[in-house]
Write a structure and sequence with these properties.
The strands form three sheets. A five-stranded antiparallel beta sheet has the order 1-2-9-4-7, with helices on one face. Strands 3-8-5-6 form a four-stranded antiparallel beta sheet, with no helix packed on it. A two-stranded antiparallel ribbon has the order 10-11. The N and C termini lie far apart (about 50 Å). α1 (about 5-20) packs antiparallel against α2. It contains three helices and eleven strands. The radius of gyration is 16 Å and the shape is globular. By secondary structure, it is an alpha+beta fold. Bound molecules: fe (ii) ion. Fe (ii) ion binds near residues 81, 83, 88, 134 and 177.
């Protein structure tokens, strides 16, 4: 029997109720890869007939983790960013996304450097844990699923500019790795 979105959300809920920590988030990453192996799920949410753009396909009414589907026509590189107090798992279904992990060098908050890059091919999921700085670079036609620990439209997060070694705090910027962040003047 296929592993469905409902199965995934039930498992994620159960995992978070026991282990809302790195080990639990890693279990969720593995469960997402199982979900990506269900062709019916992919066809329904990240298939050739889906409209371009981002759509939220589930929000847990109690724990508030969210599942979002991305059907992207154009290639895009995001700036390095974190998700505030939320973890995130990205799961690729079509084309690829290159992920880069960044780390502060210790000089100041805005000075960061890349420490690891890896590619998510279809079927692969990657975990970015709480406050882990990352950037994404996806090709045209990419389709992927993102799971976040909270509704990101309500979460304060940081966006970095490595060129100028500056960091901006973004408040309630919307569920967006796919739009330009709206900066709070600061
Ligand atoms: Fe992200």
């Amino acid at each position: 029997m296929s592993y469905t979105l409902t199965d995934f959300c039930d498992d994620t809920r159960a995992i978070l109720q026991k282990h809302d920590d790195h080990a639990g988030h890693e279990q969720i990453r593995q469960k997402l890869e199982t979900l990506l192996g269900n062709p019916a799920f992919c066809a329904e949410y990240v298939g050739p007939d889906n409209n371009t753009g981002m759509s939220q396909i589930f929000e847990d009414p109690k724990l508030h983790f969210c599942v979002l589907a991305y059907n992207m026509a154009d290639a895009r590189k995001s700036p390095p960013h974190d998700h505030g107090s939320s973890w995130a798992v990205y799961g690729q279904t079509t084309v690829y996304t290159d992920m880069t992990i960044w780390a502060a060098t210790g000089k100041d908050e805005g000075t960061i450097e890349p420490v690891r890059t890896f590619r998510l091919d279809p079927g692969n999921a990657g975990l970015f844990d709480v406050r882990e700085i990352h950037s994404i670079d996806y090709a045209a036609g990419s389709k992927f699923v993102r799971v976040t620990g909270v509704d990101m439209s309500m979460e304060t997060r940081r966006v970095f500019d490595p060129e100028t070694a500056t960091v901006r705090t973004i408040e309630q910027a919307g569920t967006s790795d796919t739009r330009e962040p709206r900066a709070k003047s600061s």
